[in-house]
Amino acid sequence: MTAPAVPLKNLGPLSEQAAPPLFDRAGGFYFTDCKGTSTQPGGGVYYVSPDFRQITPVLGNMALANGITLSQRGKLLWTNEYATGRLHRVELADAKTVAPFGTTVPYHFVGHAPDSLRVDADGNVYVALYRQGRVMVFNDNGIPIGQILLPGREQGHHLVSTSLAFVPGSNEVLIVTNDGDGSEGSWIFKAKAFAKGADLFSHQ
């Protein structure tokens, strides 16, 4: 499936933001340490306990660990590496422990890098692609099943597609973009997803 996106709002100039923390059902949260290079990985994924007293590494040796999201049941963690263009699928035994044989890299991106991630209620994963003006969609095994193309991308506009979010309780996904060196500024586009967005534990 290739779905169109429609413009929703012009935001004006925006500064780049760090990826937000990802909360789980217990009240702890995951975050990515976005550092390293394609040849010297130095980042990773970490889990902060619900009482905020303990920080545990979950994945290490990542090259600019970036986007992160969690399945509806909290047993499948997805993250990516900006510098190497890799999508990681991580099965969890518990919040801070990877299950045996639980890590795979089901997809290697071509071109500029993967950025923010979101998951829908059916387990599909949505990945914003920086400098590509599109969002790729994968099933819960990491197989590509569709994409959302932003208007103007063929003319070189709205390529800085870095972030996305679901409208709560709906299958509408909002995509935040910037025109980079172009003249069209920052926009929010909306598009239809395969399913409703997964319930965020931070909003329950």
Tell me the name of the CATH class of the largest domain.
Answer: Mainly Beta
CATH superfamily heading of the largest domain: TolB, C-terminal domain
- SSE order: EEEEEEEEEEEEEEEEE
Low-pLDDT windows of residues: 11-18
State the helical fraction: under 10%
Tally of contiguous helical segments: 0
**How many distinct folded domains?**
2
The CATH architecture classification of the largest domain is 6 Propeller
Overall geometry: globular
Q: Whole-Å distance between the termini?
A: 31 Å
Question: What strand line-up does the widest sheet have?
Answer: 1-14-13-12-11
Q: Using only CA atoms, what is the Rg?
A: 16 Å
Number of strands: 17
Q: Mean pLDDT, rounded to whole units?
A: 90
Domain SMP-30/Gluconolactonase/LRE-like region: 23-153
Organism: Paracidovorax wautersii
Protein name: Lactonase drp35
GO molecular function, one term: hydrolase activity
